Amino acid sequence: MEADRSSYKLNDFIADDSFKEWALGMAKSDFWDSYRTQYPAQQPVVEEARLLLLALKASQQSREDDHVVEAIWENIKVGKGKKSRTVVFRPAFWRVAAAAAVLLICWGGYHFGGRKEPGFGWQDNIAALSDMTQESNTSGKPRDVRLPDGSMITLENNAVLKYDKDFNAATRTVFLRGKAFFDVARNAEKPFIIHSNGLVTKVLGTSFTIAADEDDDDVTVSVVTGKVAVVPQDRFESLPEKQSPQLSGLVLTPNQKAVYSRESAHLAKTLVENPVVVDKSLVPDHFTFENTPVNEVFAALSKAYGINLVYDSSTFQDCSLIVALEDESLYDKLRVICKTLNATYRVMGSEILIEGKGCKQ
Amino acid sequence: MEPFNDQATDELLIWRAFKSGDEAAFGEIYRTQVQGLLNYGNKINPDRQQVQDSVQDLFIELWNSRERLKDTSSVKFYLFRSLRNKLSKLSRPDHSFPLDNAYDTLSDPSVTFYIFDHEIEAERIERLQKTILKLSRRQQEAINLRYFHDFSNDEIAEIMGLNYQSACKLIYSGLKFLKENVKLFTFIMLLLR
Fold first, then answer.
1. What GO molecular functions are on record for this protein (chain B) (predicted)?
2. Cα separations (Å) of B193 from A179, A189, B118, B188?
3. I want to staple B139 with a disulfide (CB 3.0 to 4.6 A). Which of B37, B74, B174, B189 is the partner?
């Protein structure tokens, strides 16, 4: 009665209830434990299926705020006493009041102290940490600072960078106020961690810009090269491996930018204002295309800038382009191409969506 | 698979206590189920306020009609089915749970913060979430019920008011799409590195 599981494909694993329970750690199974050793050729598929199941589950995760759950419960307690079926009206102001209270607390936290976690705010806790080396810049022009590990930080005007004497011992932790460009010396053993106005950025070795002015509502991190992980301060505190070189959080790649709203604690990923070519070797002859299928042009741009272009390749399969693009920005390049194709593009999150009708006669 | 494992027995005992008017048992049911119900409700109805109100009414009605309720082998299943009925009644004027993706823009994945799973890059989950949004509403619902709330295909069919074959079809077609498209994304990412 049992299906032959030795030749399972990805879909078969995903659809199999006992596999799902095992993969998600809901149930133990000797069968699946020994399956991988029994059918070694299946190992990659098993792993792929297991990760897909974990990702599927994680992708559906959501959690309502405790105060919402409590408010509903209070209303249930009131409503259930009534004999008739009553619909309890929960006035909207209740929710507004709750939201305002939460905001006020955060705001109060920012302005009236009470910041205990290191790096959560700026003045109080940084001042409290002694033995801090401070680098600041009030010269009106960018100033380069070289750190003991070889990293080069370019501080914009009014930016302040602090680090303590343990810098470069186990980790490389610094605190930033204002805007700075980081060119971090690669050291996979010692993650470089930057605390800036409620956002924590962790990198191994790469270059990027952080803008964390105290007066700004948002903290932004723009990546030039390498890979960076960002995470709000409060989540960072609860990460088990916060000092480890493992990158967890919202991972950014070149030309991507994280925008962290200090007020709503939302973290969003988008593209930098002016994406640059990430790998010059991938630039096809200065972007000169002669009678090239437009799908190939899109693929070339996508590779050169490391940005995912989303388009329906079947729509554009009959389109070819003769175009020489060179120093224009990516968006200008796309504008030229889209104009030729009578198509449009727009930035969606960290991807660019291209839509059009194609070139069928 | 056994009909009376410990968990099921506990659940039945709590259910019976609730039916006999035990308020603590009622609170226990609320607390165990409320997050799951809100998660599911928000997946099938874009109006969070309406979802919260429906969950609230559901529990009030549950209490008020407790003496008439039968024993149930799965409280969760019973509540999910009831919540869906409620929400689909609410949205009936404009055709219940449309197949189109009219609501999809409401859950823009780029502004959510992802729960960390140390084994999986947030990146991968984000890609998957985006791809899931390209599925039909009903495919999304079925995937949510099966892979997050752990319902069987039978239960999913019953919750969604479908026959068994249609429910299976929804899930498998959804999975097929995800598999092809998430793979594709992985492939693109590899090329970039």
1. DNA binding; sigma factor activity
2. 29, 22, 22, 9
3. B174
Residues of B with Cβ-Cβ distance to A20 under 8 angstroms? 147, 150
Name which CATH class applies to A280-355: alpha beta
B90 part of contact set with chain A, CB < 8 Å:
no
Question: Strand A256-261 to strand A250-252: parallel, antiparallel, or no bridges (unpaired)?
Answer: unpaired
Cβ neighbour number for residue A129 with a 10 Å cutoff: 13
* Other beta carbons less than 10 A from residue B94's beta carbon: 7
Domain ranges for chain B, please list them. Answer: 1-97, 101-193
**Yes or no, beta carbons of A266 and B113 under 8 Å apart:** yes
Residue B164: CB partners within 8 Å, gap ≥ 6?
B153, B154, B157
**CATH 2.60.120.1440 residue spans of chain A:** 123-271
**Predicted ipTM of the assembly:** 0.79
- pLDDT value, residue A335: 86
Give the chain B residue nearest A87 (alpha carbons).
B57
Q: What is the DSSP letter of B65?
A: T
Q: Which pLDDT score is estimated for B27?
A: 92
Nearest to A59 among B125, B150, B191 (CB): B125
Q: Do B123 and A251 touch (CB under 8 A)?
A: yes
Cα A253 to the chain's mean position, in Å?
A: 9
Splitting chain A (361 residues) into consecutive groups of 10 residues, what average pLDDT does each group show?
74 86 85 87 83 83 82 86 42 32 24 32 46 84 90 88 84 87 82 85 77 80 82 75 68 85 80 83 70 85 87 83 77 84 85 83 55
Q: How far is CA A237 from the centre of its chain?
A: 17
| pLDDT tens-digit series, residues B93-125 | 443 343 333 333 233 333 233 333 344 566 677
- Min Cα distance B32 → chain A (Å) is 11
Q: What is the CATH number of domain B101-193?
A: 1.10.10.10
Q: Are A202 and A192 in contact (CB under 8 A)?
A: yes
Domain with CATH 3.55.50.30 in chain A: 280-355
Closest CA to A339 of A354, A361, A317: A354
Is domain A123-271 classified as CATH 1.10.3720.10?
Answer: no
Q: What angle do CA B151, B118, B30 make, to 5 degrees?
A: 40
Q: Which of B42, B147, B152 sits opposite A53 (nearest CB)?
A: B147
Interhelix angle B23-44/B6-19, rounded to 10 degrees, is 110
Q: What is the CATH number of domain B1-97?
A: 1.10.1740.10
For residues A29 and A335, give the distance between their C-alpha atoms in angstroms, rounded to a whole number. 56
Q: What residues have CB less than 8 Å from A192, skipping those under 6 apart?
A: A149, A151, A171, A172, A174, A182, A184, A202, A203, A204, A205
Do residues A224 and A240 touch, judged by C-beta distance below 8 A? no
- Lowest-confidence region among A346-350, B35-39, B62-66: A346-350
Residues of B in contact with A198 (CB under 8 A): none
Helices (H), chain B: 6-19, 23-44, 48-64, 75-90, 122-132, 137-147, 153-160, 164-192
The more confident residue out of A134 and B140 is B140
